[in-house]
C-alpha cells in the first residue's frame, strides 16, 4: 500500500497504542487504496438531525462510546471491526 509513513512491522498492540495517540493506521496487506482506521473518541451531543431526531426528541443528549472507524477505498467512513487476521498481523503502519 503506498503512502504509508513506515513500511509496517507493527503488531496490533502497537497499532492500538498509536490509535489512542491520534494516528491513522493501515495494514500494508490491505488491497484498498486510501483505506485506514482511526479512533473516534467518545462524546456527548444533543440530537438535532436525522436519523436520531426520529428516535429521540430534539435536544436529547446522546452519549457515544469511543470506537474505531475506517475510511474505505471509496472515500466513505464507517465503524470498523477488526478481523482475526487484522489482530494477528504485524504489518500495521502509520498513515500520514
Give an account of the 3D structure.
- The structure is a single chain.
- The protein is α+β, with helices and mostly antiparallel strands.
- The protein has one domain (12-95).
- The protein has helices at residues 12-20, 52-55, 84-88; strands spanning 24-27, 36-40, 43-46, 61-64, 67-71, 77-79, 92-95.
- The chain has a three-stranded antiparallel sheet, with no helix packed on it. Strands 1-7 form a two-stranded antiparallel sheet.
- Strand 5 (67-71) and strand 6 form a beta hairpin.
- The chain is elongated, with a radius of gyration of 16 Å.
- It starts with 11 loop residues before the first helix and ends with a strand.
- The relative contact order is 0.33.
- Residues 1-7 have low confidence and may be disordered.
Q: Total helix count? A: 3
Q: Overall mean pLDDT score?
A: 91
Number of domains: 1
Uncertain residue ranges: 1-7
Strand order of the largest sheet: 2-5-6
Give the amount of beta strand, in percent.
25-35%
Instruction: Estimate the helix proportion, in percent.
Output: 10-25%
Question: What is the CA-CA span between the terminal residues?
Answer: 13 Å
How big is the Rg?
16 Å
Overall shape: elongated
Amino acid at each position: 500500500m503506498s503512502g504509508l509513513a513506515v513500511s509496517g512491522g507493527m503488531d496490533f498492540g502497537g497499532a492500538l497504542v498509536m490509535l489512542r495517540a491520534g494516528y491513522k493506521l493501515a495494514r500494508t496487506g490491505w488491497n484498498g487504496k486510501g483505506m485506514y482506521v482511526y479512533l473516534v473518541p467518545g462524546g456527548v451531543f444533543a440530537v438535532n438531525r436525522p436519523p436520531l431526531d426520529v428516535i429521540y426528541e430534539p435536544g436529547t443528549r446522546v452519549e457515544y462510546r469511543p470506537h474505531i472507524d475506517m475510511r474505505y477505498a471509496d472515500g466513505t467512513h464507517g465503524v470498523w471491526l477488526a478481523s482475526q487476521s487484522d489482530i494477528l498481523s504485524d504489518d500495521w503502519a502509520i498513515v500520514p
